[in-house]
Design brief:
The protein is an alpha/beta fold. The chain has one domain: P-loop containing nucleotide triphosphate hydrolases (Rossmann fold), CATH 3.40.50. The protein is built from 9 helices and 8 strands. A 5-stranded parallel beta sheet has the order 2-3-1-4-8, with helices on both faces. A 3-stranded antiparallel beta sheet has the order 6-5-7. It is globular, with a radius of gyration of 17 Å. The structure holds adenosine monophosphate. The site of adenosine monophosphate (AMP) has 17 residues, from helix 2 and helix 3.
């Protein structure tokens, strides 16, 4: 099952993907996570993208497309994948079609999580992530049991550099300018399914399962 998740930062793509991959047995591929890991490891790629991520701008297409191409060719994608955060431009969407063609696969579902800017800002500025296991919390809707500590592993919770309010607003604007045309691209291919991303996690997941299980 080959799926892409679309939606502005804060639509909950990462949260939904993490739950769904457990049920579906396919990998969750987040280009944002890949870039953050590269920055944390201090690799060549990390050095190239660090400033771009801090500002909430987009990493150049050629760089982004090449890491996705490499990742999708791995064996664990045999049965499918959930791509989260890619494609973010029409050129990336076209490149994805090419990559999948080369791999003898095709995209089945483009699921768009629709949320307003107000909801996005409220959600993201309250988002905290576990430094150790990556679990995502929200100080209002999904707070940890103990302040600042992960419920699962006890790791320290932190706020992403690009989750501060002014960066969030820029990321939303960047998304609208660059990524909205991607939604239209998939609409034309009859692959687009829109889900209200502002309802609760359980109901969103149920809706996604209904879509992919037909
Ligand atoms: P995310 O976690 O998906 O919000 O991504 C965090 C940051 O990584 C974005 O603000 C971009 O700087 C970068 N990024 C992630 N995915 C892409 C992509 N498909 N194209 C360009 N930049 C990306």
């Amino acid at each position: 099952m080959n799926i892409v998740f679309l939606g502005p930062p804060g639509a909950g793509k990462g949260t939904y993907a993490k739950e769904l991959v457990k049920m579906l047995g396919i990998p969750h591929i987040s280009t944002g996570d890949m870039f953050r890991e590269a920055v944390a490891s201090g690799s060549e790629l990390g050095k190239k993208v660090e400033e771009i991520l801090k500002k909430g701008e987009l990493v150049p297409d050629d760089l982004t497309i090449s890491i996705v191409k490499e990742r999708l060719a791995k064996e664990d994608c045999e049965k499918g994948f959930i791509l989260d955060g890619f494609p973010r431009t029409v050129d990336q969407a076209k490149a994805l079609d090419e990559i999948l063609k080369m791999l003898n696969k095709k995209l089945e579902y483009a699921i768009y999580f629709e949320v307003s800017e107000d909801v996005v800002v409220q959600r993201i500025t309250n988002r905290r992530v576990c430094k150790n296991c990556g679990k995502i919390y929200n100080l209002i809707t999904l707070p940890p049991k103990v302040d600042g500590k992960c419920d699962v592993c006890g790791g320290e919770l932190y706020q992403r550099e690009d989750d501060k309010e002014e960066v969030v607003k820029r990321r939303y604007r960047v998304y609208m300018e660059n990524t909205y045309p991607v939604i239209e691209y998939y609409q034309k291919q009859n692959k687009l399914f829109t889900v209200d991303g502002s309802s609760g996690v359980d109901s969103v997941i149920k809706e996604v399962l209904n879509i992919i299980r037909g």
